[in-house]
Amino acid sequence: MFVVSDASEGLRAFAATVVHEVRTPLSSLRLCIEGLICAEGLSRRDRRRVELALGQIDHLEYLTDQMRFLSAPCAPAPDPTDINDVVRGVAREMEEMASGRGVRVCARCAGGLPRAEAGRGPMRCILVNLCRNGIQAMDRAGVLRVWTRRAPPDGVEVVVQDTGCGIPASAIDRVWDPFFTTRPDGMGMGLAVVKAVAESQGGRVRLESEPGRGTTATVWFRVY
């Protein structure tokens, strides 16, 4: 069963408003809760509750970041970025989420790659979204593979591949649409953000998927 919704400019404007109205109180909540976790005399049980609250704030900040990227994609990067450095960092970040689902993360970086004409922040946003999507598509014993490679004559690529459920052929053309999702618990922002951010950096992204075998996303960036 698919959950389908259409995006419009009105929804983009709504997303921008939500980001503006939510980020400030979230920042205040984070400061207050981080102050609590440093308080003396906090029991182990209460400390765990505070840590859980911080985790929920992390999740809300992630969602508002998604909406921010969707409503206003990033400006082109003024400086080149080491794609391998970003891949290694994101792979480390994803390991905790992956291990909680019994998924392994395998990263392989090609040597001697030139820097890419894309910002570190936008590149990280793209990789985090693709990795999260891949991990969420897999059950235990799944493998998320991330690797980089040269794409002659003037590009570099990062590939994110999962061994998950795959995407039905009937849905593959719509996965880039904002707020379209094939998961009942999904929000349909991840791949829309990936496409918008990649294109804002002069890059492009393509997706290949086979139901029951997994999905491969390839992101191309021009070299500096």
Automatic annotation (TrEMBL):
<dbReference type="Pfam" id="PF02518">
    <property type="entry name" value="HATPase_c"/>
</dbReference>
<keyword id="KW-0597">Phosphoprotein</keyword>
<dbReference type="Pfam" id="PF00512">
    <property type="entry name" value="HisKA"/>
</dbReference>
<feature type="domain" description="Histidine kinase">
    <location>
        <begin position="17"/>
        <end position="224"/>
    </location>
</feature>
<keyword id="KW-0067">ATP-binding</keyword>
<keyword id="KW-0808">Transferase</keyword>
<dbReference type="InterPro" id="IPR005467">
    <property type="entry name" value="His_kinase_dom"/>
</dbReference>
<keyword id="KW-0418">Kinase</keyword>
<dbReference type="InterPro" id="IPR003594">
    <property type="entry name" value="HATPase_dom"/>
</dbReference>
<keyword id="KW-0547">Nucleotide-binding</keyword>
<dbReference type="InterPro" id="IPR036890">
    <property type="entry name" value="HATPase_C_sf"/>
</dbReference>
<dbReference type="GO" id="GO:0005524">
    <property type="term" value="F:ATP binding"/>
</dbReference>
<dbReference type="InterPro" id="IPR036097">
    <property type="entry name" value="HisK_dim/P_sf"/>
</dbReference>
<keyword id="KW-0902">Two-component regulatory system</keyword>
<protein>
    <recommendedName>
        <fullName>histidine kinase</fullName>
        <ecNumber>2.7.13.3</ecNumber>
    </recommendedName>
</protein>
<dbReference type="InterPro" id="IPR004358">
    <property type="entry name" value="Sig_transdc_His_kin-like_C"/>
</dbReference>
<dbReference type="InterPro" id="IPR003661">
    <property type="entry name" value="HisK_dim/P_dom"/>
</dbReference>
<dbReference type="GO" id="GO:0000155">
    <property type="term" value="F:phosphorelay sensor kinase activity"/>
</dbReference>
